[in-house]
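G., before I forget:
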Amino acid sequence: MILELVGVRKSYAVGAQLVSALAGVEFALAEREFVTVIGSNGAGKTTLLNVIAGGARPDQGKVYLLGRDVTGWPTHRRARWIGRVFQDPRQGAAPSLTVAENLALASRKGKRGLRFPLTRRRRTVVQQALAGLGMGLEERLSERVACLSGGERQALAVLMATLAQPRLLLLDEHTAALDPANAERVLAVTEDLVRAGGLATLMVTHRMDQALACGDRLVMLHRGRILLDLPSTEKRALAVDDLVRLFRQEGCAEDELLLSATHSPPS
Amino acid sequence: MSIVMAAVEQGLIYGLMALGVYISFRILSFPDLSVDGTFPLGAAVGATLIVGGWNPYAALGIAFVAGAVGGAFTGVLATKLRIQGLLAGVLTMIMLYSLNLRIMGRPNLPLLGRPSVFRLAAQWGGIPLPSANLAVAASLMLGAIFLLHLLFRTEVGLTLRATGDNPGMVRAYGTSPEGMVILGLALANGLVALSGALAAQHSGFADVGLGVGTIVAGLASVIVGEILLRPRSILWALGAVMVGSCLYRGAILVALRYGAAVGFTASDLRLLTALVVLGALVAPAWRLHREEAR
């Protein structure tokens, strides 16, 4: 298994109250598996990713990466196995560094010596990788990332996250802040890179259509628990309407979730 | 000596300090006030060693290391102990005031008649002292700029630059930004202390009060260079710091020499410098505000 969560619980203090963000999550992700995660606001999606990446430490339970217990590890130590793309395109890259410099840093993940990472060979490699995005970014290697649009930055962030060949890719609603055309393009880029690298992937999304169209397994979080876990055979037969019906059966047909079936959420 | 020569000479010597301020403020986005302590620390360490018979070049090197330790201390306070950046710098600065007095054993240490890197260069090259001053200051400053330019293209240098930009990204790509802040502040304050040691050898004394206002002078140099040259790359930015430092020193020399006519005295210098920095910091925001109002 690439990733295993065993009895993970996590609560946050909101004012004087303790709010449970994860209430006993059991989850396992196999090699090459692409799982989409949906759930309403406050279902625990972001906490789930934070617990896996190291930004939040569970109150109870264990996190295993590649069979190792990493529950107490800081983010930067887990980073050698994890690639992550955030919702905000500004979080993915360093704006005052050039496109090439960002990619060089990403591909030399965790190695911070006195070597010049931008060798001619690596320049060619990242140039080819950028050309694969089909956005013309290969012509803009020496431009600072601050000059890129949100969609371009997010495509770059996805490429950076996959470049160092992580074992696990975490996508945190990474198309939610983009306009529909760019969201579509970044999603297509993501699927290409995930397939090409055979990456185990966890993609959190607000949108049911996206959750159904991508990946080979679907997980639904509700109030900190995994409510549904559909393998690829069942997922393939599903339409958005079926998904809505399933949620109703589970007694959690919240308005926001139904709305997000057809509309992308405001962000 | 002409005022231009004097400005360039001082601009190069204090430019090393301005490079340090550029690293902490601009590259790391860390408002580091410990420079007001590490500048006289460099002077104190360097001067004490020379009085003790050390080679002036070795004194510069050891002053750099002392400053680096001071900067790393501020970094540890700010990251590991989670003290606010500004306060961490102030704490280091205050501690260093006492420490500098201890190092020198008294508030002022004269170096008259002692060897200095400038005198050594004059002897070695058989050139007059003013030329040696300029040659030594220029080679140290240009050498520092060249080395920093190389450093900021290495893995660790790019990571330092990313740390000030986007610490979350640095973390996600396998490096602790806290460690980078400590490293960056060590480098910055090493340069500041080096500048202090060099200034002491140049002016012929070290004084415990040398450091007051270092940060403002450094910021003024950085900002003047940025406004005039609008650098787009790191190498240009480092060069702009050098130019800014020379212009800032020139402005001070002019103010001191001709300011008396308008009632300006040396004691008004810091007020004037702080006002220049204030203006430069506020101007962009004010311009933005006006454009939005339109």
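The radius of gyration of chain A is 19 Å. The mean pLDDT of chain A is 87.

More on Monday.
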